[in-house]
Every structure is written in C-alpha cells, then in structure tokens.
Amino acid sequence: MKGETAASLAVHLPVAAQSSLDRLVDLGVRAERLGYGRVWLPETWGRDAVTTLALLSARTERIGLGSSLFTVYSRSPALVGQTAATLQEAAGGRFRVGLGPSGPAVVERWHGVDFERPLRRTREYVDIVRQVLSGERVSYDGDCFELDGFRLRCDPPETPPPVDVGGMGPKAVELAGRFADGWHAIMCSPDGLRSRFDDLERGASLGGRAVDDVRTTLVLPCAVSERAEHARRLVTAHVAFYVGGMGTFYRDALERQGYPVASAHAAWQDGDRDAARDVAETFVDDLAVSGTPDDAQAALARFRAVDGLDEVAIAFPRGATVNDIETTMRVLSPESSGRNRRT
Length: 343
Description:
Number of helices: 14
Shape: globular
Low-confidence stretches: 339-343
Number of strands: 12
Helix content: 40-55%
Radius of gyration: 19 Å
Number of domains: 1
CATH class: Alpha Beta
Strand content: 15-25%
Largest sheet: 8 strands, parallel, barrel
Order of helices and strands: EHEHEEHEHHEEEHEHEHHHHEHEHH
Structural class: alpha/beta
C-alpha cells in the first residue's frame, strides 16, 4: 500500500453555523495559516461551492482547494468540466474536483431529480469532465449522456485538475479505483476503511493500474472541547442525523460495516431523536473524533495511521458553533498533530 507515514490533514469546511459567506471563507484562510494541505468544500443545500471556492482561490496562496463533492445530478457534466477548468485557472493549479451521486434524499427532495443509475452516471461524469478539461472536442456516446460538436471555448488548464469520486458501497468504491484519481470516504471506521480498500484495489486492478495511484481521503467528523461531553454530544448528534434523517443511504453503509443502526433509523423516523442518539453513542467513537485536546489528538492519530489512507479531512458536526470549529481546527492542525504527512 502507500507506506507507513501518517495521512496528511485537510479541512472539510462546514455547511452550517456560518453567519456569512465572508465568515466561511475566513475559515479556509485560517486553514492555510494553520498548515492544512487542502480545503474541501461540500455542497448540500446551503451556500454553493463554486462561488465559495472562487473567493477562496483569491484569498489564499498555497493551500489546495477542492469540491467534496459536486453532485452529479445538479449540474451537467460539461458544466462541471467548465467549472473545474475555471477554478483551476483561478487557483493557479491548486484545484481538485470531487464528484459523487450524493443520496436520494438530497437529489430527489432538493434538486427534484430522480436518483437513477448513480454509479453509471458518476462514471460518465468522470469521462466527460476529463474530455472537457483536455481541450479537445467532446464526443461521448454513453447510457446517460450523448454529446458531440463542442470543445472548451478557452485554453484548457496546463495541468488538468485531478478528478475524485465519493462512494460508500463496494461497487462505488470499485468505480473510484477503476476510473478516478481519488476516492472520498465518509462515515467509515478504520476497519470499514480497510474493507473498502479491498474494493478500491479490485477496481484499480480492473483499470490496469496500481491502487497507489488513487488518492484516498476520509471525511472525518471532529469536535474538540475542554468539556469532553460537549464534544461527544456534537459528534453523536451528527452521526444520528445522518443515520436517521438522510434516508437509508448512510444507514445501509453503516450496516455493511456491522453497526446496529436500524433501530436508530427507526427511532429518528418516529420522531424520537434522543433514542436515535443513544444508539449512535454506542459506536460513535469508531466514526468520529471528539473529546479534550489530548484525547482528540490521540483519536485522530488512530485514523491517520490506517495503511492506505492518504488524507484525513477534518469535518465539523452540524451543531458546532464558530468557537467549536475554530478550537477543533487549531487543536488538530498539522502543527499541533505533528508534521509526519504524506505528499
């Protein structure tokens, strides 16, 4: 696999608890000052990622930037290619595009689009985005998209941004290993990651390449506080929401890892949030980092040590305040956690 050094550290910017766009961008600027290697920005149903990443590209100088993730149901694949080319230009070559299907709850209830053929659609997006970024005429005959006759109407990036894919199930991870430049994992324990690495390696083999060529990133919920129980409540509520409030997508992913989440999902659907959180608390330490600074740094080190993992993206629970976020970023920063990282 990829060696014995600790995975590098990135920041996965929050989608909640930010009073303004300027405040959100400030967190990315702070991440650069703290020595993080990259800022990832998710896109759910709040501020859009493109505007925010463009502002970040203007206000930062060194830190890598990336989308984690653009859903493959909200923009056409050609538009994602155009956007990736533009952000790569704006960021001076620091951009990395992340794509994924998201889940049916967001796709159908927010975007109003049927959640159909998510794996095939993701595969075609990867192909088309790369064609757009090449600067050549896009000609594609797929199951979901048929395109022909146009090319990017500006110079393509001198260095095309890598194209990453998010995935949770075995086939989705295999797809990332076979076709993408990187894989983004979410809601994975260290053992769950190791199981998915088998799928990633199988996909890389099918694609005729080494699994070491696929950069792996874990999006990891983290909360640090001198009040350890406060931090633990934040990550527990976060996990419970994803298990119970986001359809069956995350529930199924955690069931594959062996966690008893069916009762948490049922309790949440019945309106009993406390019962859902009680179940999530029994396994939250396998999926998140929380506690005092010393405890959180030790927990983070356990994830960073997973062989085959290139990067841990520090993410923040939905209920985290600005102070919670800033404390967590500072305590878990590369300078505080040690500088033994992968490039």
